[in-house]
């Protein structure tokens, strides 16, 4: 009977670390130069869902809104050509009667009457507070995750896991900054969910590493890590495949409201799966992970003296 093939993951840890570093640096440069395309949840403004009796052209509606005095509007279909979502920053002169003015502008074609289904407004001060709270939420999540891993495993693992989660966060946010995709509360929710998903995947790998360090006494640390990663690879592939199928269903069938939430999840799933191997595990190895971190040391006879 042939022995199962062990994939040499750790052989490529150095080039993978360089790729990860370059990716994060590019994302941070994009954040510093372009910034995030923050949604109305953070910047303040109005989002309205408008339903028409027949299909409507977004460009015609945008022109009608501009004639009514609405500037910098974004008009997108929401599940069909008869329903659109209009997003806009705070508009001077329309603060007190946004809904009425939107309805008047939307009824530019008497043969295609419109109705306002929903209007959501966020003030600029509220948006700034939400942005600050979002940063605090991400920071607290990373800190609490590090404390949990340190309590359950070792500090070497805790630091590796925290750097891995930070990588996943910066990677996902950096991709949104590079491509200028909208970043709103739904995307933030996806980032926080990805922190939990990535840590769960990392914990499974760490559990197997701890078990194999205690079982494979004669194997060196690199070999133990390769064996552990190979043994958990099937589980990782099955888990991420299942989640990706669900996220794709949300992306294709969930409409405009779930579009960027789903995109953020897809980007983060790739980053989280990758970082469990080449960030969290590789960094723990770089910190000198060895079997001595897991073996229970026998008590000395001197310790038994009263």
Structural features, described:
α8 runs antiparallel to α9. Strands 3-4-2-5 form a 4-stranded antiparallel beta sheet. A two-stranded parallel sheet has the order 1-6. The chain folds into 2 domains: 197 residues, Multidrug efflux transporter AcrB transmembrane domain (Multidrug efflux transporter AcrB transmembrane fold, Up-down Bundle), CATH 1.20.1640; 78 residues, 2-Layer Sandwich (Alpha-Beta Plaits). Helix content is 62%, strand content 11%. It is of the alpha+beta class and 306 residues long. It is built from 9 helices and 6 strands, in the order αβαβαββαβααβααα.
Number of strands: 6
Give the strand order of the largest sheet, numbering strands 1, 2, ... along the chain.
3-4-2-5
**CATH fold naming of the largest domain:** Multidrug efflux transporter AcrB transmembrane fold
Q: What is the helix fraction of residues, given as a range?
A: 55-70%
Basic shape: elongated
Termini separation (Å)? 55 Å
**Count of helical stretches:** 9
**In the residues, how many domains can be counted?**
2
Which sheet architecture does the biggest sheet show?
4 strands, antiparallel
Which structural class should the secondary elements be placed in? Answer: alpha+beta
Give me the CATH architecture of the largest domain, please.
Answer: Up-down Bundle
Give the rounded overall mean pLDDT.
83
Instruction: Indicate the proportion of strand residues.
Output: 5-15%
What sequence of helices (H) and strands (E) makes up the elements?
HEHEHEEHEHHEHHH
For this structure, what is the CATH homologous superfamily of the largest domain?
A: Multidrug efflux transporter AcrB transmembrane domain
Alpha-carbon Rg, integer: 26 Å
């Amino acid at each position: 009977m042939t022995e199962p093939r062990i994939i040499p993951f750790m052989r490529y840890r150095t080039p993978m670390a360089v790729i990860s570093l370059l990716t994060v640096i590019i994302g941070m440069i994009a954040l510093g130069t372009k910034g995030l395309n923050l949604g109305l949840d953070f910047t303040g403004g109005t989002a309205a869902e408008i339903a028409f009796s027949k299909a409507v052209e977004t460009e015609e509606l945008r022109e009608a809104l501009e004639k009514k005095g609405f500037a910098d509007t974004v008009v997108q279909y929401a599940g069909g050509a008869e329903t659109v979502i209009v997003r806009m920053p705070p508009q001077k002169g329309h603060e007190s009667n946004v809904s009425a003015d939107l309805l008047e502008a939307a009824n530019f074609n008497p043969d295609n009457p419109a109705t306002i289904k929903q209007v959501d407004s966020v003030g600029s001060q509220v948006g700034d507070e939400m942005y600050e709270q979002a940063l605090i939420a991400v920071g607290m999540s990373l800190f609490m995750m590090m404390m949990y891993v340190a309590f359950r495993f070792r500090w070497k693992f805790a630091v590796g896991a925290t750097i891995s989660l930070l990588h996943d966060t910066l990677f996902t946010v950096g991709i949104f900054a590079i491509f200028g995709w909208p970043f709103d509360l739904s995307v933030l929710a996806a980032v926080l969910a990805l922190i939990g998903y990535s840590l769960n995947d990392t914990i499974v790998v760490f559990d197997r590493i701890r078990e194999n360090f205690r079982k494979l006494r004669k194997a060196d640390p690199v070999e133990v890590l390769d064996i552990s990663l190979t043994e958990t690879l099937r589980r990782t592939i099955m888990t991420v495949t299942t989640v990706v199928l669900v996220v794709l269903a949300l992306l294709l069938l969930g409409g405009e409201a779930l579009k960027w939430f789903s995109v953020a999840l897809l980007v983060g799933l790739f980053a989280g799966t990758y970082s469990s191997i080449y960030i969290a595990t590789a960094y723990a190895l770089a910190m000198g992970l060895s079997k001595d971190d897991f073996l229970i040391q026998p008590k000395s006879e001197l310790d038994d003296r009263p």
